[in-house]
Specification:
CATH topology: Rossmann fold
Number of domains: 1
Number of strands: 5
Distance between the termini: 23 Å
Radius of gyration: 14 Å
Strand content: 15-25%
CATH superfamily: Response regulator
Shape: globular
CATH class: Alpha Beta
């Protein structure tokens, strides 16, 4: 039986960031879906129990619910979380990692580092 393609969710209020990440992930064979807010993602997650991303990429600062609040709501769901942020606040980074995040990357991030981080979160090998 063929292994299903990994599936990642990107939650960021900046459309261009969502498009760029989705394109980058697709280029390495990872399916991605984007959400413009944490509330939209959590609403779908709660209304559709079978919806199970293999990894969640969260922007820290978004209008309404921020990424750290989304991370708290995901607690216990066994989904690796990677944070992306334009603001390098050590307190936010510490809070994200303490909450179980795999990594906290500063925007703009290096594509190779981002891909390596996602593959690590998915427990996958780097494509050669």
């Amino acid at each position: 039986m063929a292994k299903l393609k990994p599936f990642v969710v990107v939650v960021d209020d900046d459309d261009s960031v969502c498009r760029a990440i989705r394109r980058l992930l697709r280029s390495i064979g990872i399916a991605a879906e984007t959400f413009g807010s944490g509330a939209a993602f959590l609403d779908l997650l709660s209304s559709m129990p079978s919806y199970r991303p293999d990894c969640v990429i969260l922007d820290v600062q978004m209008p309404g619910m921020n990424g750290l609040e989304v991370q708290q709501r995901l607690s216990g769901k066994d989904m690796p979380v990677i944070f992306i942020t334009a603001h390098d606040d050590i307190g936010v980074r510490e809070q994200a990692i303490a909450g179980g995040a795999v990594a906290c990357l500063r925007k703009p991030f290096n594509d190779q580092l981002f891909v390596k981080t996602v593959l690590t979160a998915l427990d996958m090998e780097q494509p050669s």
